[in-house]
Amino acid sequence: MANNGQKIPVAILCGGKGTRLREETEFRPKPMIMVGDKPMIWHIMKTFAHYGFSDFMLCLGYKGEMIREYFYNYDWNHSDVLLELGSKKITKLRNGHHEENWRIWLIDTGAETLTGGRLKRLAAHLDDIGSDIFMATYGDGVANVNIAEVLAFHRSHGKLATVTAVRPASRFGELMIEDDLVRSFKEKPQTSEGWINGGYFVLHRKVLDLIASDETIFEAEPLRTLSEMGELAVYQHHGFWQCMDTYRELELLNELHQSGKALWQVWQ
Fold first, then answer.
1. Could you tell me if 211 and 120 are in contact, meaning their C-beta atoms sit under 8 angstroms apart?
2. Do the bridges between strand 196-197 and strand 161-166 make them parallel or antiparallel, or are there none, so unpaired?
3. How far apart are the first and last CA of the chain?
4. Which domain, by its residues, includes 235?
5. Number of domains in the chain
6. What positions does the domain Nucleotidyl transferase occupy (predicted)?
7. Is 265 among the domain residues?
8. What is the CB neighbour count within 10 angstroms for residue 55?
9. Which of 46, 52, 103, 152 would staple 3 via disulfide (CB 3.0–4.6 Å)?
10. Residue-wise pLDDT tens digits, 130-185
11. Which residues of 186-199 are buried (b: 16+ CB within 10 A; e: fewer)?
């Protein structure tokens, strides 16, 4: 699905250490954990690309070099090529891949930087692109969210930010919703019911002004401030959403993929 030529970048938080999934993250960054035969980050990017958004700003940190190497070698590893051994000349053949129009900013946002600080470090690159708004999500979850609808909803209300709310079991930031606005934001309450922060944000560039430093957790003060200002709208997603926070959740995603029930693969 086309996005009418809009160059709205998608920021993906890829820098955390993923300590709750240490079985895998000891060896690779969380977004590079495999779901089926592709890393999690690829699945997330494919969802956005399905709706025509193919400019990605990857906020790298822990083991970010593995993400760099994966995409640097992507064309070589996913295309048919003719390699002439003597001259080392490489000719790309007709059978390529469907990701050729992706543009990927690989940005080192620091090993210890928190989520708000990682987004703040994108400011200069967003200025270069010249877009007043950008999208953002986490590098460890998938959904069949209609990205085009989220963007249209954001543009309809005129607020500074939109967060996508989902309804799984709670371990995440709880949203109190009233009239399509977030009235309060509680990060990871002990007990929670109802809607939670599912990521898939649409943000105005001005939101970065609410982020103080590398030590700022985006889900804490910035989102609380936006909700208190009445500037945090919510798109309620009733479909599939699943994070990959534990090894059991990784197994679940792979089971869904292998059984043909991977509802997030909207590009299929």
1. yes
2. antiparallel
3. 12
4. 10-258
5. 1
6. 12-215
7. no
8. 21
9. 52
10. 889 999 999 999 999 999 999 999 999 999 999 999 987 545 556 677 777 877 77
11. beeeeebeebbbbb
